[in-house]
Model the fold of this input.
Amino acid sequence: MNAFCTIVSADYIGFAKTLYASLKEYDPDARLFVLISSFDKTPDTPDTPGIRWMNLPDVLASHMAKKIVDKYLHTTSGNELRWALKRSYYRIY
Done:
């Protein structure tokens, strides 16, 4: 089984679902961990066996992730937050 991670804003949840569909074509056992870069609840779609939806509260137990969120949460585009979280998110999951 291969595991993949991605971080998206809420506007790009559909892209994460498409990514998972593509992964499943090549690896039926693939797992995708999706971090939505907001405090809102995860998507209103049921979890599937291959996708784990998370949002910012799920990663705040990590000291490094908490520092990053505190620093970049209120940046204008949100890109800084997503890019900065990549390393800590991949370490968590």
Remarks:
- The chain is about 45% helix and 20% strand.
- Residues 13-26 form the longest helix (14 residues).
